[in-house]
């Protein structure tokens, strides 16, 4: 991935943003693990906690603005996601789904908040930690509900299928449940945040580089910045959508484990 | 000008998921247009299908960087 476009008269050409833009150095030289993503995750936890404690502290029958906005998010996850998908015993999973949704949402939106402008989810470790958690949860729920043998039998030998089809179906089903699902769940969030950050970098750094070029290129650079602003709004939509999809898929996987026959 | 062929390959590979995403939302829109009250039922299904199709595009993106 090397590409050098020489537009300006300067010594070095334009280097397009790449993977190296995501490798942030430690904030203090001595402490290697304390990087910007770690701080952002800690900040997101503090912000979410403060917001929801403040929103639910003085709960009134007629809610104020703060309580209403807190309840709007809760209602969206509880009724829109959990109740519709998980059925009658959904209340057990609402805390997990709600935490997941708010955590992913706030961390995603951090990548367009001025001054922060980086999402921890664009580092592959953070989404995969959440994906592994979901993986453990849905397998645990399935084993607890159906028993280990029955659960594995339900995965490997889907009922209501002709015997000969099992030759094809069993490997696919096993791979889906144990490899593909956690792999895609983490990768989807990571790759979206990664690509989004890269996209904004391309337009804004590219616009900045065009500013330094000859007069014709200077005239083009406002278009690059305008695209950067438009794509920032587009990214906001993608971030909300990805938080929704991550929670939706978690709920669907849990629902699949809860159902006796899927 | 030097570059990587990976990105061109990714561009070609993204056509498939792009068509798939378009078809999923076209079906969702026409479903809601015919029967507006089915919106809440169709929405998770549409987004699930979208997520599946989009995953393929993202595999391509990751491979374009990795290879």
From TrEMBL, chain B:
Domain of life according to the entry: Bacteria
Pfam family, one: ATP-synt_C
Main location: membrane
GO cellular component: plasma membrane; proton-transporting ATP synthase complex; proton-transporting two-sector ATPase complex, proton-transporting domain
Ranges for domain V-ATPase proteolipid subunit C-like: 8-67
PROSITE patterns for the chain: ATPASE_C (PS00605)
Example GO molecular function: lipid binding
Subcellular localization: Cell membrane; Membrane
Site (Reversibly protonated during proton transport): 54
Membrane topology designation: Multi-pass membrane protein
UniProt-listed SUPFAM superfamilies: F1F0 ATP synthase subunit C
Keywords tagged on the record: ATP synthesis, Cell membrane, CF(0), Hydrogen ion transport, Ion transport, Lipid-binding, Membrane, Transmembrane, Transmembrane helix, Transport
Family annotation (Gene3D superfamilies): F1F0 ATP synthase subunit C
Transmembrane segments: 7-29, 41-66
Family per similarity comment: Belongs to the ATPase C chain family.
Matches recorded under HAMAP family: ATP_synth_c_bact
Function in brief: F(1)F(0) ATP synthase produces ATP from ADP in the presence of a proton or sodium gradient. F-type ATPases consist of two structural domains, F(1) containing the extramembraneous catalytic core and F(0) containing the membrane proton channel, linked together by a central stalk and a peripheral stalk. During catalysis, ATP synthesis in the catalytic domain of F(1) is coupled via a rotary mechanism of the central stalk subunits to proton translocation. Key component of the F(0) channel; it plays a direct role in translocation across the membrane. A homomeric c-ring of between 10-14 subunits forms the central stalk rotor element with the F(1) delta and epsilon subunits.
Name of the protein this chain belongs to: ATP synthase subunit c
């Amino acid at each position: 991935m090397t590409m050098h476009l020489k537009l300006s008269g300067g010594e070095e050409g334009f280097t397009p943003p790449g993977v190296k833009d995501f490798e942030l150095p430690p904030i203090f030289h001595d402490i290697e693990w304390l990087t910007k993503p770690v701080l952002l995750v800690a900040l997101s936890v503090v912000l979410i906690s403060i917001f929801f404690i403040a929103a639910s502290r003085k709960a009134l029958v007629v809610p104020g603005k703060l309580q209403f906005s807190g309840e709007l998010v809760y209602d969206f996850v509880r009724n829109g996601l959990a109740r519709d998908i998980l059925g009658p015993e959904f209340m057990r999973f609402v805390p997990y789904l709600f935490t997941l949704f708010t955590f992913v949402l706030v961390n995603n939106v951090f990548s367009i908040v001025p001054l922060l402008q980086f999402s921890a989810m664009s580092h592959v470790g953070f989404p995969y930690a959440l994906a592994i958690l979901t993986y453990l949860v849905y397998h645990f729920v399935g084993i607890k509900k159906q028993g280990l043998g029955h659960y594995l039998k339900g995965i490997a030998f889907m009922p209501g299928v002709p015997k000969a089809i099992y030759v094809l179906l069993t490997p696919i089903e096993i791979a889906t449940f144990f490899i593909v699902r956690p792999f895609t769940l983490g990768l989807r969030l990571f790759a979206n945040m990664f690509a989004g950050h890269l996209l904004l970098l391309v337009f804004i750094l590219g616009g900045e580089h065009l500013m330094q070029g000859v007069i014709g290129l200077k005239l083009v650079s406002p278009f690059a910045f305008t695209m950067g602003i438009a794509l920032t709004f587009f990214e906001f939509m993608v971030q909300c959508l990805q938080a929704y999809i991550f929670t939706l898929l978690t709920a669907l996987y849990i629902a699949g484990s809860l159902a006796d026959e899927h | 000008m030097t570059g990587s062929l990976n990105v061109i390959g990714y561009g070609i590979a993204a056509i498939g998921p792009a068509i798939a995403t378009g078809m999923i939302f076209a079906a969702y829109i026409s479903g809601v247009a015919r029967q507006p009250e089915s919106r809440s039922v169709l929405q998770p299904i549409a987004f699930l299908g979208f997520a599946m199709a989009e995953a393929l595009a993202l595999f391509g993106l990751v491979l374009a960087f990795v290879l």
